[in-house]
């Protein structure tokens, strides 16, 4: 299983490389242009995948080396990690083919698995500072998926005809509320995880940038809501980290 962790980590950037060159069909930017939503992020935001993929590979290599190859936690999280990595890989060619329903199941499945792994690693990291690189890698991956899954849902809703291009505000606000609830809950469960929050903040900033310059009805509202979400996450993280330090001193 540990070898599968590394192989699945390596598969993600390889498939991403071919996806961005149109091997599987239109790339993400072309599909986003077809289905413009109030939750789409500026294109530069997706560069975070390069860092996530790199750190995931670091995690894959590290958990194969001594003494970590005997670590019970890394052994326990390996199956969920493999599933999360494989689902992340599978999403890319399927999205290019416009298989939105399947992509939704896949991205939320990847989020479920990697969020659980991030919680396990955060608990260990908080208790003894162990698995720093693995914690960083999976926290960033889970943090980005926690927002990206809802962006994907908004785009799929438009593709399915559930929403209209010029009447997306209410459903978009509901999706942002759901994303906020998930982000705050997982961040609280991880006692204020700065890596997890950093990935979400990166995405929210990109939503603000894109929607600030959008001509879609309601884009100015979603841009401001994205800023409010970011501020709320920052305030929560500061409060959680201070509380954790107070608990550690008692």
Automatic annotation (TrEMBL):
Annotated source species: Pseudoxanthomonas suwonensis (strain 11-1)
Keyword Transmembrane helix: yes
Organism domain of life: Bacteria
Protein name per UniProt: Uncharacterized protein
Residues spanning the membrane: 40-61, 73-92, 98-121, 133-154, 166-186, 193-209, 221-240
Keywords of the record: Membrane, Transmembrane, Transmembrane helix
PANTHER family in alphabetical order: SI:CH211-161H7.5-RELATED, XK-RELATED PROTEIN
Keyword Membrane carried by entry: yes
């Amino acid at each position: 299983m540990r070898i599968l962790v590394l192989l699945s980590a390596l598969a993600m950037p390889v498939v991403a490389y071919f996806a961005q060159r149109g091997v599987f069909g239109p790339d993400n930017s072309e599909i986003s242009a077809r289905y413009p939503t109030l939750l789409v992020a500026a294109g530069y935001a997706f560069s975070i995948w390069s860092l996530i993929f790199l750190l995931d590979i670091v995690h894959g290599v590290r958990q194969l080396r001594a003494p970590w190859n005997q670590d019970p936690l890394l052994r326990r999280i390996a199956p969920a990690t493999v599933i999360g990595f494989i689902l992340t890989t599978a999403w890319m060619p399927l999205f290019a083919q416009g298989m939105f329903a399947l992509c939704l199941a896949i991205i939320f499945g990847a989020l479920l698995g990697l969020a659980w792994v991030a919680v396990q690693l955060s608990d260990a990291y908080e208790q003894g500072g162990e698995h720093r690189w693995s914690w960083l890698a999976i926290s960033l991956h889970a943090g980005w998926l926690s927002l990206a899954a809802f962006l994907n849902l908004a785009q799929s809703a438009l593709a399915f005809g559930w929403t209209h291009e010029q009447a997306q505000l209410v459903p978009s606000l509901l999706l942002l509320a759901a994303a906020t609830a998930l982000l705050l809950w997982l961040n609280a469960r991880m006692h204020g995880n700065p890596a997890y929050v950093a990935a979400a903040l990166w995405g929210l900033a990109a939503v603000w940038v894109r929607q600030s310059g959008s001509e879609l009805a309601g884009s100015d509202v979603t841009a401001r809501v994205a800023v409010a979400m970011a501020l709320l996450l920052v305030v929560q993280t500061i409060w959680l980290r201070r509380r954790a330090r107070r608990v550690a001193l008692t």
